Amino acid sequence: MNKDQIIEQIKAQIKDFQAKVKTEKVGAVTEVGDGIAKISGLGEAMVSEMLDFGNDIFGVALNLDEDSVGAIILGEYEKIKEGDTVKSTGRILEVPVGEAVIGRVVNPLGEPLDGQGAIKTDVFYPVEKIAPRVITRQPVNTPLQTGIKAIDAMIPIGRGQRELIIGDRQTGKTAIAIDAIINQKGQDVICIYVAIGQKEAKISRILTELTNNGAMDYTAIVLAGASDPASLLYLAPFAGCAMGEYFMDKGKDVLVIYDDLSKQAVAYRQLSLLLKRPPGREAYPGDVFYLHSRLLERAARLNEKYGGGSLTALPIIETQAGDISAYIPTNVISITDGQIFLESDLFFQGIRPAINTGLSVSRVGSAAQIKAMKQVAGKMKLEMAQYRELAAFAQFGSDLDEATKKQINLGARLTEVLKQGQYEPMPVAQQVLIIYAAINGLLDDVAVENVKTFETGLIKYAVAHTKALLDKIAKEKALSPEIEAEVKKVIAEYKQTFAVND
């Protein structure tokens, strides 16, 4: 190539040259440690904006100070050093959502943890979102059956409700949540289980149990394990909620379980103290109430104009020595629509699920029950409350009048009926059958120690011989005089065979 050709080529390149301007908002790390970075030079950063530290490490801006930005780092902060460049992305933190997350175990950033390949979706939702406004909601009046007799009969949960599960460690809080997920099989409900600071061995057991029961076909697990940084523990519930909101916006019913929010509060306290936010009661930051209220308010039942979907939240809180008047428990109790209180004493007495029916309440009440359950369980809570009072009183004296003896006998049998094994959720028609027998005194001549055997036998007998009756209760959702007569007949027939076997 001669000199003239080279000059012509250069002229052509100059003629075709178009300057492309690319602007980037760049800052520098001034301080880093414990999953927190201080950055100077990002004067236009937004709260909750994603920041790019390079090497596929991202952070979230939380503190916007006059001369610096305080950010939490999502990932291995050990790779970041003072003086590193940080870029603004202009995007609020978001997670992948959609059908692709169902059946998967992901971290709070939507990255897979189950070794089954990438999450293939092009839909993303922001982790922080304003809760649905009053005008978009409708009353909670559709039951969300948990399959647990004590809950469905006395502390009913409706679609779109927020029901707190609270109790000491090892009292069966997670067991209730997992049973509720298993019971959604065939109910057209999508389930999201958010594990916050849990042991990964425990989550592995839960995953196995859900898989064995066919529940992973409609369930996603968001896992921020005990060894993960505090930033991921803080974000996990918001990420799980965003994944659920996608389905709610599509008009579907969603159940989200946050297990547990006390660990999220501790992680948030750690981040806040490292960011030098002023501490308040029990060293929690002043906005720890807002942390949980803005999360739980996103649970709602939308009206038909907005798609009619619902998001039901079951937050879990762990208490210390049954103290429900501590800071975080009282906060979350005041946000939710009722609580299921689990007691260590009941658990050790063998009453499982160990639900204290006196302290447990559902503020939606019987609006979230089918009519058949209202008919049989309407007076059950009162009977149990009277039984507890009388049982405590009866310890001191033996000469009780007939009415008191009758009340104690009924209460003892109801207590037996409400006992239920783990991973054994019961369809609502079967619950109605056994509760009808107990509440109407049809078990009075069955010895207390034989009540569980009687119940198991009655359900087997009803499924084998009168399946049509159970189907009719499930379909009509009410006890008409004809159905009630059939229920009495089935119980009477089984009692004869039970008495012979006995």
Describe the structure in brief.
The chain has helices spanning 3-16, 149-154, 173-182, 200-212, 230-249, 261-274, 288-296, 327-335, 344-348, 371-377, 380-394, 402-418, 428-439, 451-465, 467-476, 481-501, and strands spanning 26-33, 36-40, 49-52, 58-64, 69-74, 85-92, 94-96, 105-106, 124-126, 164-167, 189-198, 219-225, 253-259, 300-301, 310-318, 338-342, 361-362. The chain is of the alpha/beta class. Strands 8, 10, 11, 12, 13, 14, 15, 16 and 17 form a nine-stranded mixed beta sheet that branches.
Notes on the protein architecture:
This protein is α/β, with parallel strands linked by helices and 502 residues long. It folds into three domains: 23-91, Elongation Factor Tu (Ef-tu), domain 3 (Beta Barrel); 96-369, P-loop containing nucleotide triphosphate hydrolases (Rossmann fold), CATH 3.40.50.300; 373-497, Lysin, CATH 1.20.150. 39% of the residues lie in helices and 18% in strands. The protein contains 16 helices and 17 strands. It has helices spanning 3-16, 149-154, 173-182, 200-212, 230-249, 261-274, 288-296, 327-335, 344-348, 371-377, 380-394, 402-418, 428-439, 451-465, 467-476, 481-501; strands at 26-33, 36-40, 49-52, 58-64, 69-74, 85-92, 94-96, 105-106, 124-126, 164-167, 189-198, 219-225, 253-259, 300-301, 310-318, 338-342, 361-362. A hairpin with a 5-residue loop joins strand 3 and strand 4. The longest helix has 21 residues, at 481-501. The N and C termini lie far apart (108 Å). The mean pLDDT is 92.
